[in-house]
Write a structure and sequence with these properties.
With 149 residues, the protein is mainly α. It is built from 5 helices and no strands. InterPro entries: MCP_dom_sf, MCP_transmembrane, SLC25A32-like.
């Protein structure tokens, strides 16, 4: 075979494998994860502040959610409300991006050549499979020391 024949057959093999992949789903998942995290991070910060507020005099006392938010705003401003947002944005963006990427690829694979829609249980199984795939990629890639890799 010539080099051109090999590349043509190689590219057709790759196109067969990846024909169910839509990168738009990855982008949508990343965008959704990032935006939801940015919108809700101040509430996550409040939750953490309440969890570590164990009665010690060193830590500030909060009367409620609004009091906590206004106290953080007065002391540290917008920067204070978004302390620690970077790792959360990376984690949420990548994990939701991978999830939607795998979910839509799996659904597309299962519906190929079918005239009817998937059953409800098939959607649930697809979601579970996508969760397992995204969990595996995320944890094995980013946390290899936990799994002894």
């Amino acid at each position: 075979m010539t080099g051109q024949g090999q590349s043509a057959s190689g590219s057709s093999a790759w196109s067969t494998v990846f024909r169910h992949v839509r990168y738009e789903n990855l982008v949508a998942g990343v965008s959704g994860g990032v935006l939801s995290n940015l919108a809700l991070h101040p509430l996550d910060l409040v939750k953490i502040r309440f969890a570590v507020s164990d009665g010690l005099e060193l830590r500030p006392k909060y009367k409620g959610i609004l009091h906590c938010l206004t106290t953080i705003w007065k002391l540290d401003g917008l920067r204070g409300l978004y302390q620690g947002v970077t790792p959360n944005v990376w984690g949420a963006g990548l994990s939701w991006g991978l999830y939607f990427f795998f979910y839509n690829a799996i659904k597309s694979y299962k519906t190929e050549g079918r005239a009817d829609r998937l059953e409800a249980t098939e959607y649930l199984v697809s979601a579970a499979e996508a969760g397992i795939c995204s969990w595996a990629v995320w944890n094995v890639t980013w946390c290899p020391s936990i799994y002894g890799i």
